[in-house]
Fold this protein.
Amino acid sequence: MGNNFFGEEKAVILGLGELRVGTCPMGTIGLGSCIALILHDQRRSLGGLAHIMLPESRGNPDRPGKFADTATNTLIEEMERLGSTKFAIVATVVGGASMFEFSANSLNIGERNTTAVRDVLRELGIRIAHEETGGRVGRSVYYWPEGKGRIIVKRADGTCTEL
Amino acid sequence: MELDPIQMDALAELGNIGAAHAATTLSQMLMSPIEMTVPEVHAIDIADMHNYIGSEISAVVVFQIQGEVADGGYIVVSMPQEAVIQLTNQMLGTTDIGREIDDMDRSAAIEIGNIMISAFLDATAELLGIVMLPSPPALAIDMTHAAFESIVAQVAGDVNDVLIFNTELESEAPPIHGSIYMLPNTELMHQLFHMLERLMEPIS
């Protein structure tokens, strides 16, 4: 839905719990409590994106993109297979919003997702180059791995920022 | 999550009864006829959610289903922003439709959602012979998909697909359009099926 932002045929929209590594443009639409984790390798102009839904996999391996720990590790493994080294990879973290007012309960999982992603990245020694997390706003993220990598965040109110 | 056609049907029928009651309350509040679509039940892979739930801006009012059932199922009313403004106008007798969403609209969305969902759960619970109550409502006015993500994160932690019941409500004057969604988690779903099967057993 609404996939015309890119104006490019090869662009891939990643759904909840999906991840992808490559050189084609990719993005996620309507991020709420989920996290779009983008790992970019400047030297090789390649990168990966995961649409992370929950903080911990608790040993559940079937959808690596769904959880902060498995998603980060899988992205890095796949990038290393394509020739990346950890030192060349920088991270961008977007999302993790708390979408609901009047709700102190479990629906506000965004913050836990953000913390989990930060922790995993720190453990792996990956630098976070950009971060736009939290708040009470939905976001869409678009990422072009070419060159230095280009990332655009579009918020629910229509404002766009290039990171 | 494998569902046979009979289970799908049973769930659609249960939702149909609930949605019909919700539509009636909406109709009474607006004093106008409400059209309702035939409810649909889909088992959707979480990765395909964005093909079913759009990213346009809506008011999304969420309730957890509580009472004599397993916790964790959710029920949602979503309306486009313009519809919420129309609703508030209708109830307050105001006419400005070009304005931004304000606190009164938020309050109206929550209240309407509350009344509709209470009617929905009352009707389905009566059919099943149990007590089902909505939790206090939570509201987001944002991209619909963004609001649904937190709900899916709750119901699909261990599974990779969600069961979505959906029906749409529409009124011509005032022009209001909205949807009701029900997302039972696995336990609630099994419990509902179990009760529905008992209902369908022939009386001996």
Notes: The longest strand of chain A covers residues 35-41. Chain A has a mean pLDDT of 89. Chain A touches chain B at residues 1-2, 13-18, 29-34, 53-54, 60, 62-63, 66, 97, 99-103, 105-110, 136-140, 156 (CB under 8 Å). Chain A has two helices and ten strands.
